[in-house]
Amino acid sequence: VNVIRRIEEMAEICSAHRAKGARIGLVPTMGALHEGHIALLRRCRQESTISVMSIFVNPTQFGPKEDLAKYPRPFKDDCEKANEAGCDIVFAPEAYEMYPPEYSTFITIERITEGLCGASRPGHFRGVATVVLKFFNIVSPHVAVFGQKDAQQVAVIKRMVHDLNCNVRIIVEPTVREQDGLAKSSRNKYLTDNERLQAGVLYKGLLEAERLYAAGQRSSEVLRETVAAIYQTAPLVAPEYIEIVHAATLTPLLALEGPALLAVAVRTKESLTRLIDNCILGGEL
Ligand code: PAF
Questions:
Q1: What's the CA dihedral at 135, 114, 41, 99 to 10 degrees?
Q2: Atom number in ligand 1 closest to CA 29
Q3: Would you name the residues annotated as active-site residues?
């Protein structure tokens, strides 16, 4: 795989491809690639002729007490995985080039960034939106692929693309899971053995809510309490939120009509790892 470090070089390569009529696809990642990322790349390759994967641990989306320093960075491994998966270009800029000392511009998306993960991670989506817009400007992709696991991130990016008239189509790929249902995540590595044994409960709760929804249950309160009761069976898992919101505006719903997002976040008690997951009741993202 062709690894590009410099922003200007990346922009030149992409505009040359565009001028020749290529369709450019982008998969933004922070590396530590797992099967979820590979699924995004596979979809990207179906939708484009040149696939670009960015690998950049974006400092502006981490809070001061978050895991920026310890976030895994297996760069050589990542390039091998990207190569095997048929990626054409890995774009891995340096933080000092993305954010030089005089850097001053940030994208703030209002309202939908306030609830769910935004409530406990102030500034997180400002950092995400800023870096994603920078990648859109550097790579000028026709399509960009994101995972449904980060459902609020998807809603935020879609809002930004619409509000700022970004010329890119956003594609959302389903969450890839471990055998016990745990959503694949680069942060799963932080889990202790005991936490890992209990972490399948996140998905178990979502499945039970889906089952009740299919049987006609439309009360948000009943569905959320069902999930909460299942999470109580796992002593190492402390829920941060279990919410049912409108899938696009992310406003809380009392009764379900139309597509609703059931989103959960927990913190584990030994390694203090934050895990998120979600499902859509009555539609898709
Ligand atoms: O989902 C992620 O890995 C990150 O939030 C993203 C989209 C690559 C921005 O840094």
A1: 30
A2: 8
A3: 37
Pairing label, strands 24-29, 143-147: parallel
Average pLDDT over residues 227-250: 97
What residues are in contact with ligand 1 under a 6 Å CB criterion?
28-30, 58, 61, 128, 131-132, 150, 153
Residue 155's nearest CA partner among 184, 115, 119, 123 is: 115
pLDDT at 132: 99
Contacts of 219 (CB under 8 A, 6+ apart): 254, 255, 256
Positions of E strands within the chain: 2-4, 24-29, 50-55, 89-91, 143-147, 169-173, 237-246, 260-268, 274-281
Which residue, among 51, 98, 95, 92, has the nearest Cα to 74 in the 3D structure? Answer: 92
Residue 154: which of 93, 113, 211 has the closest Cα?
Answer: 113
How far is CA 206 from each of CA 72, 103, 175, 261, rounded to the nearest angstrom?
Answer: 28, 41, 13, 11
For 8, 119, 263, 271, the CA distances from 267, given in Å and listed in that order, are: 40, 14, 14, 9
Q: pTM score, two decimals? A: 0.97
Res 59 pLDDT > 90: yes
Residue 214, both tokens: 């299919």
The C-alpha atoms of residue 141 and residue 170 are separated, in whole angstroms, by 10
The residues facing 171 across adjacent strands are: 145
Pocket test for ligand 1, best of 132, 135, 157, 184 (most atoms within 8 A of CB): 132
